[in-house]
Amino acid sequence: MPTDVVMPQMGESIFEGTITKWLKKPGDKVQRDEPLFEISTDKVDAEIPAPASGVLQEIKVAEGNTVQVNTVVGVIGEANGAGAAKSVPAPAVSKAAPPSPPAPQPAASTPPPMPAPAVAAREEEDEDVRSSPLVRKLAREHNVNLSQVQGTGAGGRITKQDILDFVEGRSSAAPAPAPPSRPAPVPAPIPGDLVPMSQMRRIIAQRMIESRRTSAHVHCMFEVDLTRIVNLRNKLKNSFEQRHGARLTFMPFFVRSAIIALQQFPIVNASLEGDAIRYHSHVNAGIAVALDWGLIVPVLKNADELNFLGLQRGITDLGERARSKKLMPADVEGSTFTITNPGQFGAVFGLPIINQPNSAIMGVGGITKQPMVVTDKDGADSIAIRSVVHLTLGYDHRIIDGAVADQFMALVKKTLESWSEEVG
Fold first, then answer.
1. Residue 215, exposed/middle/buried by CB under 10 A (0-12, 13-18, 19+)?
2. 410 closest CA partner among 220, 196, 186
3. For a tag on the chain, would you pick the N or C end, based on fewer CB atoms within 10 A?
4. How far apart are CA 41 and CA 202, in angstroms?
5. How confident is the model at residue 183 (pLDDT cuts 50, 70, 90)?
6. pTM assigned to the model
7. Do residues 298 and 292 touch, judged by C-beta distance below 8 A?
């Protein structure tokens, strides 16, 4: 019996979704839970798995179209070939995205495909390696044998970034031409092109304008001597990863310091509701993640109840799921305070826009070595090379006074410069 593929319900408040990409074409074999297509909603971008194994028999809704939840978007037939595969009809494509380009026809000189037994053997070998369906799909696209890739994930699991690093290293060592049967990449936009905004970009644009119109934005900046934490991380990062199977990053230090300050100054963790102020009982930390196709803010719920290791694992998990489109709507809802990190790209500092309905957002600049005046315990001054970061706080002046914002950031600075908590 054929199986209908439907637009999933990605949360109680979500009633429609846009199909941004089909990962299979009519006639392709699919496995149950294998990524089948990608969607974009007003909450998240996500990969949707196949509901059954078989052959993708028909695509009913083309890329770029927005439909209501539970709409049938495709059909999976039995793998024995019952039912001819049908191409998607030519529906009216939404203005949100341009029509998909036609699939290129293989040239007469295209070499024959790899024999089926060899392909099957490679797939069976890849299945034995600890990896996700997305990683195995990416490996097949780049003709990568997973047994040759060193995994950096928990327990040696191979991540998407491991594949990309392997491909980049292989390309720099011995560049190889792309297989003749692979479609040519879509050229990047050039001056003069008119390119429709993606669903995510339209949502980001709308929310940024709404935030600027809603909140009375003010910013303050603090310079923080991060030398103590930089030295601690350099000392512990290898043993930390060996013991816990996770990289030791700087982000949990900033999140933990913010949590301590938020508990001291709860108004910074509050939200404005009409003429009343909502004081939240927990810190739900939004961690901004930059993606190749936009920006998303997954939320670490009840972050104030986590120890340092819990913060690191939670931050890593949210980041990986954001980049692999595995987030659910609940993962991006309910933040009470947001942290963004423009410094990862080299920015000295940023002036971030508040993530509504939060009342504040902290921006983390790049960590650089600078000469600083250092005062010892006897009061003597000297010049030393220190690791410095600039932190900014964007806050809503309707409910947070400048003095409170400065006191909040002063406590964040003090916590970071005199770090004493167990890292693990």
1. buried
2. 220
3. N
4. 11
5. very low
6. 0.67
7. no
